[in-house]
Amino acid sequence: MQQRIPEKTMLKGLTTHFALNRLITGMEAILDEDRVSWSMILERALSARSLTSLFPWSLAGLAVVQSLILLLASGLSESPSQRGWLALQGLVVLLFAVFNVYLTVWEHRLKEDEMRARCCHVLKRLKQVKEHIHWNPTNYPHLHTPMAASIVLQWTIRDKKQVNLPVSLLVESDLVFLKPGQAAPGRCHSFDDPKVKMEPGDILHVDTHHTTEISPTPEFKTPAKPQLFIMDETPYLAVLKMVLQRKERVQKSVLNKHTYLLFVQILSHFLFPLAFLITFIWSALRHNQGWSFYGAHDYIQLFLVQPVAVVLPLVSFAFPVCYVIVNYIGMAWILGVYSTSRHIRVNDDPFDDSVDKPELETTNRASFPKMKRFFMKSMFGTGEYLSRTENIVHTLGSITALCCTDKKGILSWPLASPEKIFILKKEKKSSTKKSLDESDYILTPEILTVTHDPHNPTSVEFDDPSWRKYLPFLKPLGLSILLNTCNIQTEEKYTNFFNHLTCESMKNEDSARSTHVHKNNVIDMLPIVTRGCLCEMSRKIGFDGKTSNQYSLSSQIQTFRHVQTDRHDRFAKNLMMAKLKFPFPHMVSVMTQDRSTGSRQLISQGTGDIVLDSCTDCWCGDDLEPLTESLRKTILDFYQRASLSSYATAFSYRPQTFPLPWKNCAEYLQLPTHSLPFYWQYNEETEGIDTDAITSHISIGGKQTSCFDKPKSEDNYVKTKEDAMHCLELQCNQTFLAMVQLQYQVMVEIVQLVDLLEKACIRFVHFSRENELRSSVFSEKMGLESGWNCHISLRSPNPSKPTTVSTKGDKLSEDDHSGLEKNNKIRGSLPDKLNRPIWFLDFPKWQETKGGLRAERRLSRAELIRSARSNSCENLEDSVESQGDASVTTDSDPFEYDMSNRAQLPRGIENIRPHLETMDNVPLLVSLFTDATAETTKEMVQIMQDYGEVICVMGSSANYKNIGTFIQSDASLAIEPRYPQLCQTVPVSIPPKVGPSPAAISQLLNSVASSLSFKMEDEISIYHLIMESRHYTMALINGLKFWACTLVSLSLLQLCSLFLTLPLFLTIGQVMWMSLLILPLLSLSLLGTKKDPNIMNISTGKNNILLNFDLLKYSLWCYGSRFLPTIVILIICHLLTTVSLIQTCPSNHVNHTDPIVLSSPSILMPLDNLEDLVYCSDDEIATDMVLPQLFNFAFTFLYMVVISLSFVSRTHQIWQKHPGQNPAWLVITSLLAIFMAIYVALYVGSSPGEYYAPVHVWIILMVGLLVVSLINEIVKRQEIKVEVRYQKRERLEFGTKLGINSPF
């Protein structure tokens, strides 16, 4: 039971140590409840259908049967020597069976308990560092850190301070500030009103206006402030329960499927019963007919010993222990690479592809003690690394798709960088175009492109070498950046303003729902999270940090407006149809005062539309010029285009004479949907402009003075609509300075990684939370395709309404109505044409000024009103059609191309499976999924796995919502992203002097279900991890195939000898030596081959192993051609050896002058001289066959070594890649040869008889070695050609995205 917190203490928040103790207590309680019964472990471990079962009950049953048969034969045998050996062999088989069952159950128990062990390791680590944790507010991420989907933080009161706490560290009874529009991190209730409760995922809606109608006049709006809530649960405990649910993670790797297919299905389930049945039937037939080539065998040999000798190799008793050891050696190897690998720096230029592939060996190998430590931790499941529920070697070795769930801080730099600067400049007219009544220049836009440093996004360089000639144009922009954008004093209020805009954007959707407005008729507004850091650009222009010290911030004004969904506005209509989010129109103005002169300036920054409305002229480097209608269209067109795929911010300026009448303007100024007429109504008495307005600050006229002659110094002064008009008057008549387009820049390492993965036929899949257009632009920067059949939106066409909770009650009021779709009644004193699009208004014309500048005459107020009244009587649609050609959206439409996916791919996660089942597989081939959430990402990963994809997911460890996707994937990489900074001069956090930081503890908790966890600054080379895993996996599969083939060959040698009625090719003891020691070591030595230079240029295929006729035919040809010649040669030699032994039978009763008659079905001859044939006894046979079987044993090993030469490298001939490049194979083969020589010498020395193989047998065996080696190389040559054709088909399929709706 949790300790109850007193109410007075709650106002101070919890202490760090108390919260950590509560988190630890909750984790311990859940871990204590998590237990798995032994019955379930045994059932899963020994299941014959389990891919991960090393020795299922079926194999254990076969092993026990063999053991009982050998023990029975021992009891029935009359020969004392055979009785002892058979009993010993039976006990050895039984011992190996028991050991393998124990090993299988032990492995599965560790697998079932691995997640719990991992959680216990995290808990242990948390307890160790708890006492050393002494955090202060600077150790947490900055309170106003820009929001990012990859980083989930929560304003919390800890240790009497408000801090930005990672959500995974929240505990029950924490006092948190929920921002307007924020989703609740867990169950909580309001501090002020306990009846207001929120469930996880509920969105807080702060209703401060009592109505959703938009006023037709400017007015002040009360800010939607964060609300105090008390947590009713610890959010991380729900995540921990999800991690411990083992049903969500089933390891079905390609390697596991190969081992199950080879050693369980083929060898044990198919060949074992088949071989045993054939042997038993043949033995019964021999016993009935009395067929025997050499000696008369009794029923014990025919029905007990010989069948076991045939099928004994088909149950590989050495496989479980070898596979376990090899698995964890591979795990230790990859962890060693992980601990030493670094990013691949092919070139400083990310787009320079002069180097096809990086070096294979670029890092130092881990030391042996470190590798040993990795091996032991993986082997015994200490919980530090996942090796059973999620094996990084198996996944990366056969990976087909590398998915990323987060963008900021992982794929891109955390903050947007400037790309383009839009300014206006003068250009001289040509003499042919100049007329008498026109000036000799025109204003044209100039776009300066900026490139950021690939390794430092804050460092920028102008692409134009002569950019310094534009310094006069850029100087005001640089000063505006210092005083507004990168002014730390404005960040707190901008954060609150952003929260308010988030709430306002939600109100649009709620109002549309309450008034039954279709979703397609509502424009999704996107509040701008951050204004970016442009300090480096300001410094480049010529301003340093000391410049800002010359100015003081006196006040701030935040202005915003909604966007009207006018069906006659083509741009708005296209926004609604394409379902694109557009920046919420807003403007942030700061009033600064020069400390030396006392002059005041109003510096504004915001979206291009609302900033442009407040401007009447523009800065052209040396003068002010009026903004004509064409210039406004040009500026607005650039802004709209830039805002669709990136972020654009405009800057304006105005000198001021009077300060604001309030010390602090706590409210936000809300403008009507069309604010331009309100700005222009204060401009009618201005006859011209002052060309020196930038350098000498002027007064804006007597009317402004009269507006502010009564200052209100009280902060809590209730501002009226008249005050709003006065504030609006302060913002009018500004000068447009410039516009900056910003975009998130892809990291160089990611661009190189995507390119290298594509060459390796590994698809890089990005699950983007943004819309299709923004995501496509960013994907192009990464090097992904973004054209035909290249992206799918996971957002449902009819999304369910998110649950919102209002601070006014438990539910939103159902009487709320939208002010966006209503025709408000406009008073006669307001500007006319208010409901018409702003680009259809009659823009004011300019008169000639003192400086000789000539502009067109602007309409007077009376003419403007008369024109508006005359047009108001006309039909609005006819007016739009007649003037449509002059609109900016008609002449230059940002939606001039089709925004929809022309391939008609499914939209919405619920439509993916039906499309795959009924149409085509294009959804599995795309590299971009947009509008993704944690739930849809997890479901899409599961769909890809169901269709054979091997998925590795990389995502942010600072986002606890990624844990569900991590669990679903085959392997996961939890990466701590780079945190966004308010400004490059302000650190995200200051590391504590002792102990880990809050971000480090959050990473530890959120990476509990991940294979590996690291920071982006660690520079871990994912490419090298994939390369090493792929090499190890392919080498292991190659060795396992060789191992399985040798076991089948061993069984065939025994079976063929029995079919020829010959004595056994090998004794049971020799079969056990061969299958338990020699062949496993020889097979596993193939893992030591060096990496193929082209290993990252091939496709590993999907995680589908389907046995069909073509695959069976190819396998029989490929592997049968390699091993059948060996079987034929050895059986022929065995036959010749047996024939030679007939002449040396100890009975010596055979008349050698008479022809030898063989009583065998293979040689059909009349048995006329049967009485002359004397058979040897069993003891004589056993004695005579000791040396020949030893001879067979040695040459079988020798032939297997020769065959393994062609398995050392499956992609090169032996003269292209000699076996010396595999040191492990050389060492193990040499040691086995020494062992074989000692073994043969000991047996020959202890054997009572003598045996000399015929010369022709030696000739056949020696020539056979060369023949087998030659045949294997010929087969390999054909195999390489087949593999080349297969790789071409796979690469073609990988790069082709043709579907049923494709035009080809």
Automatic annotation (TrEMBL):
Transmembrane segments: 54-73, 85-106, 259-282, 302-335, 1040-1065, 1071-1089, 1123-1142, 1190-1212, 1224-1245, 1251-1271
Keyword Transmembrane attributed: yes
Lineage: Eukaryota, Metazoa, Ecdysozoa, Arthropoda, Crustacea
Keywords attached to this entry: Membrane, Transmembrane, Transmembrane helix
Stretches with biased composition (Basic and acidic residues): 808-824
Highest rank taxon of the organism: Eukaryota
UniProt-recorded name of the protein: Cation-transporting P-type ATPase C-terminal domain-containing protein
Region feature Disordered, mapped onto this chain: 793-827, 875-899
Entry's Gene Ontology molecular function annotations: nucleotide binding
